[in-house]
Write a structure and sequence with these properties.
- Helices cover 35% and strands 21% of the residues.
- With 373 residues, the protein is α/β, with parallel strands linked by helices.
- The protein folds into two domains: 141 residues, Rossmann fold, CATH 3.40.50.10950; 150 residues, Isopropylmalate Dehydrogenase (3-Layer(aba) Sandwich).
- The protein starts with 21 loop residues before the first strand and ends with a helix.
- This is Phosphate acetyl/butyryl transferase.
- Pfam families: PTA_PTB (PF01515).
- One of its GO terms (molecular function) is acyltransferase activity.
Protein backbone atom coordinates (compact mmCIF):
# COMPACT_ATOMS: atom_id res chain seq x y z
CA UNK A 1 0.00 0.00 0.00
CA UNK A 2 1.46 3.34 -0.97
CA UNK A 3 1.29 6.54 1.07
CA UNK A 4 -1.59 9.00 0.52
CA UNK A 5 -0.90 11.65 -2.09
CA UNK A 6 -0.01 15.14 -0.78
CA UNK A 7 -3.34 16.66 -1.87
CA UNK A 8 -5.35 14.10 0.13
CA UNK A 9 -6.97 15.27 3.37
CA UNK A 10 -7.18 12.70 6.16
CA UNK A 11 -9.67 13.24 8.96
CA UNK A 12 -8.17 13.13 12.47
CA UNK A 13 -9.26 10.33 14.77
CA UNK A 14 -10.58 11.94 17.92
CA UNK A 15 -10.56 9.89 21.08
CA UNK A 16 -8.16 7.26 19.78
CA UNK A 17 -5.00 6.65 21.73
CA UNK A 18 -1.78 4.74 21.19
CA UNK A 19 -2.38 1.07 21.88
CA UNK A 20 -6.08 1.12 20.95
CA UNK A 21 -7.34 -1.50 18.52
CA UNK A 22 -9.07 -0.45 15.32
CA UNK A 23 -11.09 -2.48 12.85
CA UNK A 24 -10.51 -1.46 9.25
CA UNK A 25 -12.97 -2.39 6.51
CA UNK A 26 -12.52 -1.79 2.79
CA UNK A 27 -15.54 0.37 1.98
CA UNK A 28 -14.82 0.72 -1.73
CA UNK A 29 -12.03 0.61 -4.25
CA UNK A 30 -11.20 1.53 -7.79
CA UNK A 31 -8.10 1.07 -9.91
CA UNK A 32 -5.99 3.44 -7.81
CA UNK A 33 -7.81 4.07 -4.50
CA UNK A 34 -8.97 2.12 -1.48
CA UNK A 35 -11.53 3.76 0.81
CA UNK A 36 -11.10 2.40 4.33
CA UNK A 37 -13.80 2.58 7.02
CA UNK A 38 -12.34 2.51 10.53
CA UNK A 39 -14.17 1.43 13.67
CA UNK A 40 -13.21 1.93 17.32
CA UNK A 41 -14.75 -0.08 20.15
CA UNK A 42 -17.05 -1.72 17.61
CA UNK A 43 -18.58 1.71 16.77
CA UNK A 44 -18.24 2.56 13.07
CA UNK A 45 -16.89 5.97 12.22
CA UNK A 46 -19.01 8.32 10.21
CA UNK A 47 -18.42 8.43 6.48
CA UNK A 48 -16.51 11.67 6.92
CA UNK A 49 -13.75 9.63 8.54
CA UNK A 50 -13.28 7.28 5.64
CA UNK A 51 -9.67 7.27 4.58
CA UNK A 52 -8.83 7.26 0.90
CA UNK A 53 -5.48 5.59 0.27
CA UNK A 54 -3.73 5.40 -3.09
CA UNK A 55 -2.95 1.92 -4.37
CA UNK A 56 -0.85 0.84 -7.33
CA UNK A 57 -3.05 -0.15 -10.24
CA UNK A 58 -2.67 -2.98 -12.69
CA UNK A 59 -0.42 -5.14 -10.52
CA UNK A 60 0.93 -8.36 -11.95
CA UNK A 61 -0.10 -11.76 -10.69
CA UNK A 62 1.60 -12.33 -7.37
CA UNK A 63 4.67 -14.53 -7.63
CA UNK A 64 5.94 -16.85 -4.95
CA UNK A 65 7.37 -15.09 -1.93
CA UNK A 66 10.95 -15.39 -0.76
CA UNK A 67 12.45 -15.46 2.70
CA UNK A 68 10.65 -12.48 4.22
CA UNK A 69 8.17 -12.54 7.11
CA UNK A 70 6.11 -15.65 6.33
CA UNK A 71 7.34 -15.75 2.73
CA UNK A 72 9.70 -18.68 3.23
CA UNK A 73 6.91 -20.73 4.78
CA UNK A 74 4.68 -20.01 1.78
CA UNK A 75 7.49 -20.78 -0.65
CA UNK A 76 8.18 -24.12 1.02
CA UNK A 77 4.47 -24.92 1.02
CA UNK A 78 4.31 -24.15 -2.71
CA UNK A 79 7.11 -26.61 -3.54
CA UNK A 80 6.11 -29.26 -1.00
CA UNK A 81 4.50 -31.46 -3.64
CA UNK A 82 7.65 -31.54 -5.75
CA UNK A 83 10.11 -34.36 -5.12
CA UNK A 84 13.64 -33.26 -4.20
CA UNK A 85 16.28 -33.01 -6.90
CA UNK A 86 19.87 -34.20 -6.69
CA UNK A 87 22.14 -31.18 -6.24
CA UNK A 88 25.92 -31.05 -6.47
CA UNK A 89 27.08 -28.97 -3.51
CA UNK A 90 30.48 -27.69 -4.60
CA UNK A 91 33.15 -27.43 -1.87
CA UNK A 92 30.93 -26.93 1.22
CA UNK A 93 33.98 -26.68 3.44
CA UNK A 94 32.71 -24.26 6.04
CA UNK A 95 29.95 -24.51 8.60
CA UNK A 96 27.60 -22.11 6.82
CA UNK A 97 27.54 -23.74 3.40
CA UNK A 98 27.49 -27.31 4.75
CA UNK A 99 24.69 -26.54 7.21
CA UNK A 100 22.64 -24.82 4.51
CA UNK A 101 22.86 -27.84 2.21
CA UNK A 102 21.82 -30.22 4.97
CA UNK A 103 19.00 -27.90 6.08
CA UNK A 104 17.66 -27.94 2.51
CA UNK A 105 18.01 -31.73 2.55
CA UNK A 106 16.01 -32.05 5.79
CA UNK A 107 13.30 -29.85 4.32
CA UNK A 108 12.94 -32.18 1.35
CA UNK A 109 14.24 -29.72 -1.24
CA UNK A 110 17.45 -31.42 -2.35
CA UNK A 111 19.36 -34.68 -2.31
CA UNK A 112 22.88 -33.33 -1.79
CA UNK A 113 26.00 -34.72 -3.40
CA UNK A 114 28.86 -33.21 -1.42
CA UNK A 115 31.86 -32.49 -3.65
CA UNK A 116 34.91 -31.65 -1.54
CA UNK A 117 38.11 -33.02 0.01
CA UNK A 118 36.69 -35.72 2.27
CA UNK A 119 39.08 -35.09 5.17
CA UNK A 120 38.34 -31.37 5.22
CA UNK A 121 34.60 -31.95 4.90
CA UNK A 122 34.57 -34.45 7.76
CA UNK A 123 36.60 -32.07 9.93
CA UNK A 124 34.01 -29.32 9.43
CA UNK A 125 31.18 -31.75 10.14
CA UNK A 126 32.87 -33.01 13.32
CA UNK A 127 33.49 -29.48 14.60
CA UNK A 128 29.83 -28.55 14.03
CA UNK A 129 28.31 -31.82 15.21
CA UNK A 130 26.93 -32.54 11.75
CA UNK A 131 26.20 -36.11 10.72
CA UNK A 132 27.25 -37.06 7.17
CA UNK A 133 26.26 -40.73 7.28
CA UNK A 134 24.24 -41.81 4.26
CA UNK A 135 25.25 -38.82 2.12
CA UNK A 136 27.14 -39.23 -1.13
CA UNK A 137 30.57 -37.61 -1.01
CA UNK A 138 32.69 -37.01 -4.10
CA UNK A 139 36.25 -36.84 -2.78
CA UNK A 140 38.41 -34.33 -4.66
CA UNK A 141 41.76 -32.74 -3.78
CA UNK A 142 40.78 -29.04 -3.76
CA UNK A 143 38.15 -26.44 -4.64
CA UNK A 144 39.15 -26.16 -8.29
CA UNK A 145 38.74 -29.91 -8.74
CA UNK A 146 35.40 -29.70 -6.90
CA UNK A 147 34.10 -27.14 -9.39
CA UNK A 148 35.21 -29.28 -12.33
CA UNK A 149 33.68 -32.44 -10.82
CA UNK A 150 30.40 -30.64 -10.16
CA UNK A 151 30.23 -29.43 -13.76
CA UNK A 152 30.88 -32.96 -15.05
CA UNK A 153 28.20 -34.45 -12.81
CA UNK A 154 25.70 -31.85 -14.02
CA UNK A 155 26.59 -32.37 -17.67
CA UNK A 156 26.20 -36.12 -17.24
CA UNK A 157 22.77 -35.79 -15.64
CA UNK A 158 23.91 -37.12 -12.27
CA UNK A 159 22.80 -33.89 -10.59
CA UNK A 160 20.06 -31.50 -11.72
CA UNK A 161 21.43 -28.38 -10.03
CA UNK A 162 24.62 -27.03 -8.52
CA UNK A 163 25.07 -25.15 -5.26
CA UNK A 164 28.01 -22.93 -4.43
CA UNK A 165 29.85 -23.77 -1.24
CA UNK A 166 32.87 -21.99 0.24
CA UNK A 167 34.76 -21.40 -2.99
CA UNK A 168 34.88 -18.16 -4.95
CA UNK A 169 32.14 -17.45 -7.49
CA UNK A 170 34.67 -17.05 -10.31
CA UNK A 171 36.12 -20.49 -9.62
CA UNK A 172 32.74 -22.21 -9.83
CA UNK A 173 31.47 -20.28 -12.84
CA UNK A 174 34.71 -20.80 -14.80
CA UNK A 175 34.12 -24.55 -14.56
CA UNK A 176 30.45 -24.18 -15.56
CA UNK A 177 31.05 -22.05 -18.68
CA UNK A 178 34.13 -23.93 -19.89
CA UNK A 179 33.49 -25.30 -23.36
CA UNK A 180 34.59 -28.76 -22.27
CA UNK A 181 32.03 -28.88 -19.45
CA UNK A 182 29.04 -29.25 -21.76
CA UNK A 183 26.78 -27.02 -19.68
CA UNK A 184 26.51 -24.01 -21.95
CA UNK A 185 23.28 -23.22 -23.79
CA UNK A 186 22.43 -20.71 -26.50
CA UNK A 187 22.03 -18.09 -23.77
CA UNK A 188 24.64 -16.31 -21.71
CA UNK A 189 24.60 -17.23 -18.03
CA UNK A 190 23.37 -14.54 -15.65
CA UNK A 191 22.50 -14.13 -11.99
CA UNK A 192 19.16 -13.09 -10.53
CA UNK A 193 18.53 -11.80 -7.04
CA UNK A 194 14.93 -12.49 -6.02
CA UNK A 195 14.16 -9.80 -3.45
CA UNK A 196 11.27 -8.94 -1.19
CA UNK A 197 10.90 -5.84 0.94
CA UNK A 198 8.00 -4.51 2.99
CA UNK A 199 8.05 -1.22 1.06
CA UNK A 200 7.17 -2.86 -2.30
CA UNK A 201 3.97 -4.83 -2.90
CA UNK A 202 5.52 -7.84 -4.65
CA UNK A 203 8.77 -9.82 -4.80
CA UNK A 204 10.99 -8.65 -7.64
CA UNK A 205 14.18 -9.60 -9.47
CA UNK A 206 17.40 -7.58 -9.78
CA UNK A 207 19.72 -8.72 -12.56
CA UNK A 208 22.63 -9.06 -13.24
CA UNK A 209 24.45 -8.21 -10.04
CA UNK A 210 26.95 -11.08 -9.76
CA UNK A 211 28.17 -12.54 -13.08
CA UNK A 212 28.35 -10.13 -16.04
CA UNK A 213 30.62 -7.17 -15.36
CA UNK A 214 29.71 -4.78 -18.17
CA UNK A 215 27.25 -6.54 -20.47
CA UNK A 216 26.75 -5.31 -24.03
CA UNK A 217 23.41 -5.13 -25.80
CA UNK A 218 23.20 -8.78 -26.84
CA UNK A 219 24.33 -9.93 -23.40
CA UNK A 220 21.66 -7.75 -21.79
CA UNK A 221 19.10 -9.37 -24.08
CA UNK A 222 20.05 -12.78 -22.67
CA UNK A 223 19.98 -11.39 -19.13
CA UNK A 224 16.44 -10.18 -19.81
CA UNK A 225 15.38 -13.55 -21.25
CA UNK A 226 16.76 -15.43 -18.25
CA UNK A 227 15.01 -13.13 -15.79
CA UNK A 228 11.70 -13.37 -17.65
CA UNK A 229 11.90 -17.16 -17.56
CA UNK A 230 12.59 -17.12 -13.82
CA UNK A 231 9.70 -14.75 -13.14
CA UNK A 232 7.37 -17.02 -15.09
CA UNK A 233 8.51 -20.06 -13.12
CA UNK A 234 7.81 -18.09 -9.95
CA UNK A 235 4.26 -17.40 -11.05
CA UNK A 236 4.21 -14.15 -13.08
CA UNK A 237 2.71 -15.02 -16.44
CA UNK A 238 3.88 -11.83 -18.20
CA UNK A 239 6.46 -10.06 -16.05
CA UNK A 240 7.10 -6.34 -16.33
CA UNK A 241 10.78 -5.63 -16.91
CA UNK A 242 12.22 -2.18 -16.27
CA UNK A 243 15.57 -1.41 -17.89
CA UNK A 244 17.29 0.92 -15.46
CA UNK A 245 19.39 3.97 -16.18
CA UNK A 246 20.02 7.26 -14.39
CA UNK A 247 17.34 9.01 -16.46
CA UNK A 248 14.17 8.05 -18.27
CA UNK A 249 15.05 9.68 -21.58
CA UNK A 250 17.40 8.45 -24.30
CA UNK A 251 20.72 10.31 -24.17
CA UNK A 252 23.44 9.45 -26.71
CA UNK A 253 26.05 10.28 -24.08
CA UNK A 254 24.65 7.66 -21.70
CA UNK A 255 25.09 4.17 -23.18
CA UNK A 256 22.68 2.56 -20.71
CA UNK A 257 19.81 4.60 -22.17
CA UNK A 258 20.69 3.55 -25.71
CA UNK A 259 20.79 -0.12 -24.70
CA UNK A 260 17.44 0.28 -22.95
CA UNK A 261 15.81 1.75 -26.04
CA UNK A 262 17.28 -0.98 -28.24
CA UNK A 263 16.10 -3.75 -25.90
CA UNK A 264 12.57 -2.37 -26.02
CA UNK A 265 12.65 -2.39 -29.81
CA UNK A 266 13.99 -5.96 -29.75
CA UNK A 267 10.96 -6.89 -27.65
CA UNK A 268 8.69 -5.11 -30.15
CA UNK A 269 10.19 -7.20 -32.94
CA UNK A 270 9.84 -10.49 -31.06
CA UNK A 271 13.53 -10.94 -30.26
CA UNK A 272 12.75 -10.90 -26.54
CA UNK A 273 9.47 -12.56 -25.62
CA UNK A 274 7.39 -13.42 -22.58
CA UNK A 275 7.47 -10.08 -20.81
CA UNK A 276 6.62 -6.40 -21.11
CA UNK A 277 9.75 -4.24 -21.40
CA UNK A 278 10.19 -0.51 -20.90
CA UNK A 279 13.21 1.71 -20.53
CA UNK A 280 15.19 3.64 -19.90
CA UNK A 281 13.58 4.12 -16.51
CA UNK A 282 15.23 5.64 -13.48
CA UNK A 283 14.87 3.55 -10.32
CA UNK A 284 12.18 5.77 -8.80
CA UNK A 285 10.04 5.57 -11.93
CA UNK A 286 10.43 1.79 -12.07
CA UNK A 287 9.10 1.19 -8.56
CA UNK A 288 6.84 4.19 -7.85
CA UNK A 289 3.70 4.99 -9.80
CA UNK A 290 3.59 8.39 -8.11
CA UNK A 291 7.12 9.24 -9.28
CA UNK A 292 6.27 8.15 -12.82
CA UNK A 293 3.10 10.25 -12.84
CA UNK A 294 4.96 13.28 -11.54
CA UNK A 295 7.36 13.01 -14.47
CA UNK A 296 4.55 12.43 -16.95
CA UNK A 297 5.64 8.90 -17.79
CA UNK A 298 2.94 6.69 -19.28
CA UNK A 299 4.12 3.11 -19.13
CA UNK A 300 2.76 -0.39 -18.44
CA UNK A 301 5.93 -1.08 -16.43
CA UNK A 302 6.61 2.11 -14.46
CA UNK A 303 5.81 1.78 -10.77
CA UNK A 304 5.08 -1.94 -10.92
CA UNK A 305 8.18 -3.65 -12.27
CA UNK A 306 8.70 -7.34 -11.55
CA UNK A 307 12.27 -7.25 -12.91
CA UNK A 308 14.91 -4.53 -12.65
CA UNK A 309 17.62 -4.96 -15.30
CA UNK A 310 20.65 -2.94 -14.24
CA UNK A 311 23.30 -1.36 -16.51
CA UNK A 312 26.25 -3.31 -15.08
CA UNK A 313 27.38 -5.52 -12.23
CA UNK A 314 28.62 -2.68 -10.03
CA UNK A 315 25.35 -0.77 -10.05
CA UNK A 316 23.33 -3.96 -9.65
CA UNK A 317 25.40 -5.29 -6.78
CA UNK A 318 25.20 -1.97 -4.92
CA UNK A 319 21.45 -1.74 -5.54
CA UNK A 320 20.77 -5.28 -4.31
CA UNK A 321 22.93 -4.92 -1.20
CA UNK A 322 21.47 -1.52 -0.35
CA UNK A 323 18.01 -3.08 -0.52
CA UNK A 324 19.14 -5.95 1.71
CA UNK A 325 21.13 -4.07 4.33
CA UNK A 326 19.34 -0.71 4.46
CA UNK A 327 15.92 -1.68 3.13
CA UNK A 328 15.57 -4.96 5.02
CA UNK A 329 14.99 -6.95 1.84
CA UNK A 330 15.05 -10.72 2.00
CA UNK A 331 16.83 -12.41 -0.87
CA UNK A 332 17.51 -15.53 -2.85
CA UNK A 333 20.18 -15.97 -5.51
CA UNK A 334 20.15 -18.16 -8.61
CA UNK A 335 22.09 -18.43 -11.88
CA UNK A 336 20.30 -19.23 -15.13
CA UNK A 337 21.50 -19.76 -18.69
CA UNK A 338 23.31 -23.05 -18.09
CA UNK A 339 21.76 -26.50 -18.51
CA UNK A 340 21.13 -26.65 -14.76
CA UNK A 341 20.23 -23.94 -12.23
CA UNK A 342 23.00 -22.85 -9.91
CA UNK A 343 22.35 -21.72 -6.34
CA UNK A 344 24.68 -18.77 -5.89
CA UNK A 345 24.55 -17.01 -2.55
CA UNK A 346 26.97 -14.86 -0.61
CA UNK A 347 28.92 -16.08 2.40
CA UNK A 348 27.04 -13.41 4.40
CA UNK A 349 23.59 -14.64 3.35
CA UNK A 350 21.23 -15.98 5.98
CA UNK A 351 20.03 -19.55 6.38
CA UNK A 352 16.61 -18.44 5.11
CA UNK A 353 18.14 -16.94 1.98
CA UNK A 354 20.01 -20.16 1.19
CA UNK A 355 16.93 -22.31 1.72
CA UNK A 356 14.82 -19.99 -0.44
CA UNK A 357 17.48 -20.23 -3.15
CA UNK A 358 17.31 -24.04 -3.00
CA UNK A 359 13.53 -23.94 -3.28
CA UNK A 360 13.79 -21.77 -6.40
CA UNK A 361 16.41 -24.15 -7.83
CA UNK A 362 13.96 -27.00 -7.21
CA UNK A 363 11.27 -25.18 -9.19
CA UNK A 364 13.68 -24.48 -12.04
CA UNK A 365 15.01 -28.04 -12.15
CA UNK A 366 11.49 -29.43 -12.51
CA UNK A 367 10.74 -26.77 -15.13
CA UNK A 368 13.84 -27.80 -17.09
CA UNK A 369 12.61 -31.40 -17.19
CA UNK A 370 9.69 -30.20 -19.29
CA UNK A 371 11.40 -27.31 -21.07
CA UNK A 372 15.17 -27.87 -21.30
CA UNK A 373 17.15 -24.62 -21.51
Amino acid sequence: MSQPSPDMTLQPFEGINVGDSLRVTVASRDASTLTLLCAHDAQPRQPSSQQAVSMPSGGAAQPLDVASHHGLTRLLAAVKALPPVRVGVVHPCDATSLSAALDAHRLGLIEPVLIAPRARLEAVALAQGIELQGLRIEDVPHSHAAAERGARLAAGGEVEALMKGSLHTDELMAAVVAGSAGLRTKRRVSHCFVLQTASYPRPFIVTDAAINLAPDLLQKADIARNAIELAQVLGVAKPRLAILAAVETVNPNMPATLDAAALCKMADRGQITGGVLDGPLAFDNAVSIEAARTKGITSPVAGQADILLVPDLESGNMLAKQLMYLGGAASAGIVLGAKVPIVLTSRADSRESRIASCAIALLLAHHYRQTPP
